[in-house]
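Letters spell out the chain; backbone shape is given numerically. Both lines appear below:
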Amino acid sequence: MKKMVILLALFLTLSIGIYHAYSTKNLSELQLANIEALANGETGTSNTGPREKEKCYGGGHKMVCRGINSHPCEDSDCF
């Protein structure tokens, strides 16, 4: 019984210490500025041109947007 109480106290002390170490961690001004700079200007280029021909699985071709510029583009089905 005594071992159980000691292990429980040790576990609680360790848990509180870990929680305190991670909850009080603050980012510096430089880190915050870097995070903001990385996030600025994100537009997502998944549906932009130009379109290029790509082989389909099992034969045929389809047109696929390459995400190189800001012009809208749509992929096509296999033909």
